[in-house]
Write a structure and sequence with these properties.
The chain has 535 residues and is of the alpha+beta class. It has 3 domains: 193 residues, D-Maltodextrin-Binding Protein, domain 2, CATH 3.40.190.10; 102 residues, Dipeptide-binding Protein, domain 1 (Alpha-Beta Complex); 223 residues, Roll (Dipeptide-binding Protein, domain 3). It has a 7-stranded mixed sheet with strand order 8-9-10-1-11-21-12, with helices on both faces. A 4-stranded antiparallel sheet has the order 4-5-7-6, covered by helices on one side. A hairpin with a 5-residue loop joins strand 14 and strand 15.
């Protein structure tokens, strides 16, 4: 189908499937001053930054809440709501100096008490924090020195403390609003100190924000330091990718989340549109291999699998070179990335075949290897949006050296059940976070799932030396020494071959070029709208 015909068919889909657009086509002042985002998740649960672990929810949260330390898509740290910070020599506390000219959307002054309240409530189990409680680290409490000075204390040295203050999950909330509404209602009508304030949330349809006119404290990476030129931000829930692109081309949204690669390639070269790709920091898109049972309990089989796949060729075939292959447990844009991972498991089908021979798996009927009457067969669960197309490509390539992978597109509920039942061989995952501490989520033994506790070390990697390195890395404040510790951790992970990195996790965004000034936020996964202007 030609690009022109594809656009026509998409517009027809829009007419049949989308609700009446919030922003009508035309040159109205409202349309010019509104940014409408097409969001791929239609079921957000909370817009409380203290609770969420979802980048979908943070796409909205990031417009309403500013962070103590500022950071954009480059992951560099700069002053935010805190103008300066000083870590104690022992790494067990950080003292922050706060801005004096900031207020929350409800008129509550931003001060040290607000920061203390935010952190204390994150640490309170009643808040049921998913992401922030991890970012908070070994929090011991906060001491208010004066109205604009606060000391954050830790039970042990915490090397990631300052970087954690740049994470949106630790953004200060209005104590007045939380106390007045309670946690549950606050999650549905949040109050922050960012450039936009909450207006309404229609489940299944949209969220509306409006400009906070008193905003005058934008971080340095924004060109506009005062109130945004954007009056309204509308987030429309459009889970189907083709429908989302159709809405973009129909002028019903200004910017599209997770735009398919084919459309990115086409729109990049189409007048009136532009694209941007954010390489997410953290753990890239990759595969956890179940080392506790089945075919991947043998490290030789795991290494053979890794050498059977040419990741660069896979990225070229599936993504036209727009997405780079990944080589280790950290993406290359993440602080602490160890370049040595790039020397591991280079594509070599002959070496892969030799390893399988050594492990006792011999060629059998249909090219599938067999051992003791069993086929070299494994279950590969692929939950959308974690790319079932990638799974099918890997299935085909792995078959060339004798693997028989059974690919099944699964729901998140099915993923959970497979994890609890330990009934899988391969499951894909990613983790967005701009600090090497994120490795703990997948590779620390404490995160091996147990009955009723859904954790992410599905491969069941249990290495006391690795756990000790994670503890050491958390405690070191010197960046070079810290990176060296995390390099050793990455070596152990790569040697285990329980993790197979596939490609960088990216945010593929297409937008109508009549509006400009979009910025990627820290970790390059969500887009900020404060600087957007028309023309």
């Amino acid at each position: 189908m030609s690009a022109k015909r594809a656009s026509v068919s998409r517009r027809a889909v829009v007419g049949g499937l989308l609700a009446a657009p919030m922003v009508h086509r035309g040159a109205s002042a409202q349309a010019a001053n509104t940014v409408t985002w097409g969001e791929d998740d239609a079921s957000p649960r909370t817009y409380d930054p203290r609770v969420t672990s979802s980048r979908h929810e943070y796409q909205v949260i990031g417009q309403m809440f500013d962070t103590l330390v500022a950071s954009d898509g480059t992951n560099k740290l700069s002053p935010g709501l805190a103008t300066a910070w000083q870590a104690a020599p022992d790494g067990k506390s950080v003292t922050l100096k706060l801005r004096t000219d900031v207020g929350f959307h409800d008129g509550t002054p931003f001060d040290a008490e607000a920061v203390k309240f935010t952190f204390d409530t994150i640490a309170d189990p009643k808040t049921a924090s998913e992401g922030a409680v991890t970012q908070l680290g070994p929090y011991a409490g906060s001491t208010v020195i004066d109205s604009q000075t606060i000391r954050i204390d830790y039970t042990q040295p915490f090397g990631a403390a300052v970087a954690s203050f740049a994470e949106g999950t630790l953004a200060p909330v209005s104590p007045t609003a939380v106390k007045r509404m309670g946690n549950q209602d606050f999650a549905r009508a949040p109050v922050g100190a960012g450039p936009f304030k909450f207006v309404s949330w229609e489940p299944g349809r949209q969220v509306v924000l409006e400009r906070f006119d008193k905003y005058n404290w934008a971080p340095g990476f924004f060109a506009n330091k005062g109130a945004s030129k954007v009056q309204r931000v509308v987030t429309r829930f459009i889970p189907d990718a083709s429908t989302r692109v159709a809405a973009l081309e129909a002028g019903e949204i200004d910017i599209s989340d997770i735009t398919p690669i084919l459309d990115m390639k086409r729109l990049k070269d189409t007048r009136g549109y532009a694209t941007m790709i954010g390489n997410a920091a953290g753990i890239p898109f990759g595969l956890e291999l179940n080392g506790s049972k089945g075919i991947f309990s043998d490290v030789r089989v795991r290494r053979a699998f890794a050498m059977a796949i040419d990741r660069k060729a896979l990225s070229e075939n599936l993504f036209f070179g727009l997405i780079d292959p990944a080589y280790g447990p950290l993406s290359s844009d993440t602080p602490g990335y160890w370049k040595g991972v790039e020397d591991y498991y280079k594509p070599d089908p002959r070496a892969a075949a030799a390893l399988l021979d050594q492990a006792g798996w011999k060629p059998g009927p249909g090219g599938i290897r067999v051992k003791d009457g069993q086929r070299l067969s494994g279950f590969y669960g692929a939950p959308p949006p974690l790319e079932p197309d990638t799974a099918v490509e890997i299935q085909a390539v792995a078959k060339r050296v004798g693997f028989d992978l059974k690919v099944e597109t699964i729901t998140f509920a099915r993923n959970q059940q497979l994890v609890f039942d330990n009934a899988f061989d391969i499951l894909p995952v990613r983790w967005i976070q701009a600090d090497p501490m994120c490795l703990e989520n997948l590779f620390h033994s404490s995160n091996i799932p147990s009955p009723g506790k859904y954790r992410y070390n599905w491969m069941q990697l249990n290495d006391p030396k690795l756990d000790a390195l994670f503890a050491e890395g958390r405690a070191i404040t010197d960046p070079e020494k810290r990176n060296a510790v995390y390099a050793d951790a990455q070596k152990i992970i790569m040697d285990s071959a329980l993790w197979f990195p596939v490609h960088n996790q990216v945010q593929t965004v297409a937008y109508r070029s009549a509006k400009k000034g979009y910025h990627f936020a820290r970790a390059s996964w969500v887009v900020l709208f404060h600087d957007v202007v028309s023309g």
